[in-house]
Structure formats: structure tokens, C-alpha cells
DNA sequence: CTGTTAGCGCTTTCAC
DNA sequence: GTGAAAGCGCTAACAG
């Protein structure tokens, strides 16, 4: 019997009742631990259910209850590195209870997203989390959705929605403050695509921290792609133009890896001659570099968990508020900024 | 109205019927494109549905139809790199139609898996895809599941189940054949944890290819972790012990990155002096190295798609067979084995 | 304590 | 063409 086709229809509550010799209602009560059932009867019902390997039909239940114990996760870019931890966090928060997650990947396509949204609504999900692929604001799903919606990572462009997004401004500030506290004063910035809100927010934070210390960025921020290649090329240019830099704040761990490569090629010792800090704390990159990479971690899993929690709260009727909330990030210090003893 | 609590209950079919001035039955027929409805009536019903933004209740439908248009995706390691493409492939295959995916991550915990399985069954999913985190066989869910089950990546340990897994043997063979076709004859192998079936299968394939060419591996396969660190250390040992190697087959792209690093440090030119081939074709690693990394791609997205297709077929009553099927992998050639002109 | 009854929202005969 | 009625599997009053 490949891939299991048991001919027999799955057992229903009435099958259980019949086998136990009681009414459906009594069977229901027994199975749901209601206290107005004789112990002996409950035993009999439980045994019957066991024997038939009875599994209650969640849909029938949902039909009555009005809630399905189901939430929709509407992502736009499953492949993206940032989606996964958020998704895990959400799954975690839900997984504990009776909730299951519908995963829908719109592949960044608005039409598909609308289609998925419709499907979720028709499945009567109790709530929806929308996970974007960047921290740039995305179009709101609108205010007409009959269930609570929370936006994670990419905030909604409608301030009436509730959005949770990592605090890139503070991230940029923390990175610089760390470098300064390591005694660096000639700090440059290499980052990715200037069109990303993330890039700009981090720069703003970085500049604020420099300002506060009476410092300035060495040269202008260098923009291009979020890749190792760019990190290498940019570092080469930087070190030639400004040989006196003593630290580089990188917009991503990938860029930082490239910077480390070039520093090595040019005989600059990290962190002694040059401190390097990355962003995202992509473990597999950050812990396998030489030296290991100090980085800013956006706590995405926690962000996902919080989004889920908010959806829960809203389902329970709690007012979860609105607007875009910037969640704390954290600094993870490794050998690329602090010499190991 | 944050997070959208529209006070009014979502519209039901009977609301639509009332507004259109017809019976529920007629409204149902009109909305489902049944042909025994007058054109004018249908128009009226459709307009009413539109006006109330009526969304049919999939659960009520499912109760009647006996199928839910829903499949369960039971993964054991969401974080893993291999899960995602499979998951995407499956979502793709399903997404086209009316099917939605329930995502459950068991975090590699059998208890949690059982719990999730129960939840899926009670939600009356039409089928289940089980995605493992390695290519080592995993415990079967058993033959008692009332819906079709397909195992992806990690095969089931029960041959009565249907499993789809990448062909690591052929992958190993292809890697070596490619190196040989590049004129290499002194080939070594650096790989990860010997306890992984993947590691052993690839070695077996590699040895077969070497045999066929009358060659032998240089030294024994070097086992440890699947990390860049190990790749660097192993390469250093290898090049010292066997300075005459002209190619290294690596068990993962991460290891290969490490090997490239060391080769560079020791002044070995890649690919001229030393050809390097990785495994997994992890794009972000493979395309950002110097030179770019030739690698074996397991076509995971396609594997996911196929798994979904099989589940579909089984739902439609097609016999999908049983046993473990090894799906083709492919060689992606880049600069680490072939000099760029 | 237990069983009867009435639905949840929808589709589907089967009369009219 | 259209509508009344019978459920899908289950829970929640309410009687007994």
C-alpha cells in the first residue's frame, strides 16, 4: 500500500459513539474532558476512540467555533535570508499552542499575493503575518481585512497598520560606537544598494554616533551591491585612497568578508591595523572568516515571535496598536574588531 | 481601527442570497458556475456577492467535499539550507492550483513531529510531504496515515514509503569525471562528517569514477566538519603531505571555500595548479569566491516540485509507487576548474 | 449523568 | 429555473 491509501474512511465521532454505545453528544463530552460524564463512560469512549484512531475533524470544529486555530504567513521572498528566522520565530510562537501556519510565498508578485490573501481568507485564518524581503515599506494589504494583520521586517506603508521592523538606525549607531570604543577614529563605510532604506538608516545612525564623538566618516559611504565582490573592490579603492583608515563599517557580512579578503591581500592585519564590522550576523559567514566577524544581529527570530504574539493578542481582542515599531538589534563581538588574547 | 476589527461578521452565502433575493441554493449554483441558473439571476447574485465582499468558507466546503485543498509540509530543520529550496519547489507546484501549504517545523524533535502530524491530520490535509535535513534515512511516519505521504531529501527507512532524494553517488561520480576531463589525475577528497550518508555516497561515486579511469584517490578522504575552517586546515595538511595533487573534490562549497583560501595563501594558482570543485552549489558562496566555484547542484527545488506532484497524483488516486528514488544532480562549471579566457 | 435537538456555512438531490 | 430539505462532523444548550 504505497503512500497509504487505507480504503476505510477515517473514523468520525459517531463511529466512536456507536462503538462505545453512547450518543454522539456524550462521546463529544467525554473526548473534550467535560466534567459531566461518568468515569466509566469516559473510559469506554476513550478506548473506542483509540481503537478507531479517531482524529477530530478540525474543520467541523472550526465551523462551530468561528475560529480555526490557523494563521497565514504571507511572505514575498522565501529564498531571502531574512525570511527564514522570522518564519521560524513565528512558527515557534504558534507551535507551542494549537495553532498551525499556512505558508504562502508570493514571490514578490502583487497578483499572486492577492490570490494567496484570498485563499487565506477563505480558509478563515484567524490572523495574518506579512513578511517582506527588505526593510523598505511595502504596500498595505488594506484596512478591509476581516482578521488582524501584522507586518514583519518590511513595514506597511499605511501608518494605521502595525509593523515590526529591525532598528537599522540604532544598528548603525551601535556599530560605530563599538568601533569608537575600540579606539578607532578613522572610520569608513562600505555598503550595498543606496536605494535600500536599510542602507540609508544605518548610515544615519552611523553619522549620529560619529557626530556625537566629534568625528566624521572617512570619505563618503561607498555604495554598490551587497556582495563579497564589491566588498573586495571597495576595500581596495578605500585603502588606496585613504591609507590611514583604521576601521570599516560594512553594510553586510558579505561585504565585510570581501573587505577582510582585500585587507589580507594587502597585508593589513585585522583587527590590529584595521577593524572590520559587518551587519546581519549571518553565522555561517561571520564565524568562518579569518578572523571571525563582529556583526550586528537584528534578532529576527525574536521579531518573528513578537509578530506572532501580536497576532495572538489581536485575536484575543487585545488592542495591539499601530504604526511602525523598530525592534532592538544587538552587537555580536568577534575577532575582527577585538584582538583575541 | 488598528489591525482591522471590522465589527460586522463576514458575509455568508445566505447573506448574499438574501441581498440578491434568491434562495441559498440558487446563490450557491450561481457562484459556482452551475449552468441551471438564469443569466439575470446569476448577475444579481454575483453583484450581491461583490457588494458584501463575500468569501466562501473553505471549511464548510471541505466538510462536504471531503477534501480540503490543503497539504502538510513537515520539516525537521527549517534553518537548514536544504529545506528552503525544496519547500519553495513544493510551494510552487501547489501554488499554481487551489492548494495551500501547512508548514510545520518539528525542530528535529520526534515528539513535536508527532504532535504536528496529529494537527495536520485533524486539519484533514489531503497529503503530506516530509522534508528531512540530511540524506540519511529517517524513521517512517508509518503506514497508518490516512493520506498520501512523500518523503523528500531524507528518505524514509521503510521501503514501502515513497522517498525522493538527490543522487549523491552520481554527484560524486560527476565531480570526479569532470576533474578527469580537465586533465587532472592526482585528485584528493576533503569532506565533512563521515557519519553522513551523503559523505559516503559521494565517496563511493567518486571512487567508481576514478576506478573507471584507472586512477586512485590521493591519500584517504579527509573527514571532519562541513566548515570553511576545516577546508582551510585540511588543504594545508594535504598540500604539505601531497604537494603533487592537482585537484581537490570537496564535500561542500564551504569546505571548498576554505581550500581556495589556503591555496591562495600557499601560492597555488586555481585552477591552473590546482582545480577545486565544491558540492551543493550554494550560489552565494560559489559565485563570490575567487575564482568562482565549480560545484554539484542537487536540483532541490525540482525535487520539491516532484514531491508535490507525487502527492497530487496520489490524491487523484494514481499509484505513485514506493521505494527510494534518487533524483539527478547537475554539474555547474565555474572558474575553479576551468581557466577563464 | 445522558441523549435529543438545533445549528455552523455550504453543496446537492429532488420536487415544484 | 428555482427552492426546500438533507446532511458533512461536530458542539452547545436543553431536557430527561
Task: Report on the architecture of this protein.
The structure is a homodimer of 341-residue chains. Chain A is an alpha/beta fold. Chain A has 3 domains: 13-55, Orthogonal Bundle (434 Repressor (Amino-terminal Domain)), CATH 1.10.260.40; 70-166 and 300-328, Rossmann fold (3-Layer(aba) Sandwich); 168-298, Response regulator (Rossmann fold, 3-Layer(aba) Sandwich). In chain A, 41% of the residues lie in helices and 15% in strands. Chain A has 12 helices and 11 strands. The first copy, chain A, has helices at residues 13-20, 24-31, 39-51, 58-65, 83-95, 110-122, 168-181, 197-212, 228-241, 253-265, 283-286, 300-315; strands at residues 70-75, 100-105, 127-131, 149-152, 162-166, 187-190, 247-250, 275-279, 294-297, 323-327, 330-332. Chain A has a 6-stranded parallel sheet, with helices on both faces. In chain A, helix 1 (13-20) crosses helix 2. The longest helix of chain A is centred in the middle third of the chain and has 16 residues, at 197-212. Chain A starts with 12 loop residues before the first helix and ends in a 9-residue tail after the last strand. The relative contact order of chain A is 0.12. Mean pLDDT of chain A is 94; it is low at 1-7. Strand 2 of chain A pairs antiparallel with strand 2 of chain B, so a sheet runs across the interface. Chain A binds a DNA duplex (16 and 16 nucleotides) through residues 12-14, 22-26, 28-29, 32, 36-38, 41, 56-57, 59-66. Chains A, B: Keywords: DNA-binding, Transcription, Transcription regulation. Chains A, B: Residues 11-65 form the HTH lacI-type domain. Chains A, B: It comes from Microbacterium kyungheense. Chains A, B: GO terms for molecular function: DNA-binding transcription factor activity; transcription cis-regulatory region binding. Chains A, B: This is LacI family transcriptional regulator.
